[in-house]
What we know:
Layout: H1 2-43, E1 54-58, H2 62-76, E2 80-84, H3 87-97, E3 105-109, H4 111-119, E4 123-124, H5 129-134, E5 147-159, E6 183-184, H6 191-204, H7 206-218, H8 228-237, E7 242-246, H9 247-256, E8 262-265, E9 275-284, H10 290-300, H11 303-313, E10 316-317, H12 326-329, H13 343-346, H14 348-357
Parallel strand pairs: 1-2, 1-3, 6-7
Antiparallel strand pairs: 3-9, 4-9, 5-7, 5-8, 5-9, 5-10
Helix pairs in contact: 2-11, 6-7, 6-14, 8-9
Amino acid sequence: MKHILYNMLFLLALMMVSGCTDSMEHAENSNEATSNASSVTAQGGLETSVTGPVVVYSSRQEHLIKPLFDLFTAKTGIEVQYQTGEEGPLIARLQAEGDRTFADILYTVDAGNLWSAAEKGLLAPIDSPVLEANIPAHLQDPLNRWFGLSVRARTIAYSTDRVDPSSLSSYEALALPEWKGRLCLRTSRKVYNMSLVATMIERLGQEEAQRVVEGWVENLATRVFSSDLLLLEAIAAGQCDVGIVNTYYLGQLQAQNPDVPVALYWANQESSGVHVNVSGAGVTTFAKNPAGAKKLIEWLSTREPQQLFSELNLEYPANPGVPPVDIVAGWGTGRQDILNVEVAGRLQADAVMLMDRVNYR
Length: 361
């Protein structure tokens, strides 16, 4: 009987030792996995233990983002879910949801919109050597709350039939009397023009910027247009001779008609450089998957997705080491204004008031 009791006690002791050993091994493995995941995230490589989906709120059209997200999923195994809409309502939704938001990333156009979201406390700083290496300083938030991912220049378009490009020089020169009745503009209500005028305020000061914009209004050939594409078509049709547009709209027009008699002129090459803006993204303050969000934004700054940005919407890569597609490269490369694009948000209200004062609607 004693022999049986001793055997039972011995087996019980073995089971307790085995259970403790398994628990220790499990804890060590968990700590090692956590450590490895943190290391990979910091390095910005594609190998990652992030398995949950990354949720994106985006103002970009689905056909411009889905191919990128699908490719990211194919490369990493990380699912991307997205909700598209206008930038204003998306930012308002993010603000209303607060810490209950589903969004891990806000991805939108124009630095003014990104600045607004960041100033509302909706975006968290990103500590990323990958993004710092890939995205120039003037295309990112000074506090690292968002990073530009693609670039559009807003420059001068002109009729190749009626305008000698040697007569062009700057945004400011379009206010001169020689362009009276020859200028077309898009509505001031579009954020792209708000950002351009905000940059002019920073560069020229309020008084001089107002004088320029007032000159533009006096030189208008017709009422302002609702889109850059309509403006370019007006130049081609002879309704006006020059205008200010985002570069990729000319690419859209050339896709329909390669012989359209309109070309781009790089503004302000003898002074500040051509005005540029971005589409970009940031990790939301209450992201449920911040590691996955950071991984996606980092990946979007690398060569293959940067080339896709250029191909899908005829934009310039934000990463200066990546060349644009042929049609974009064919327009040439103007020297960029390296004033940080955050000014587009910081002075946006001033720009709107200035344009209202001179009846630029």
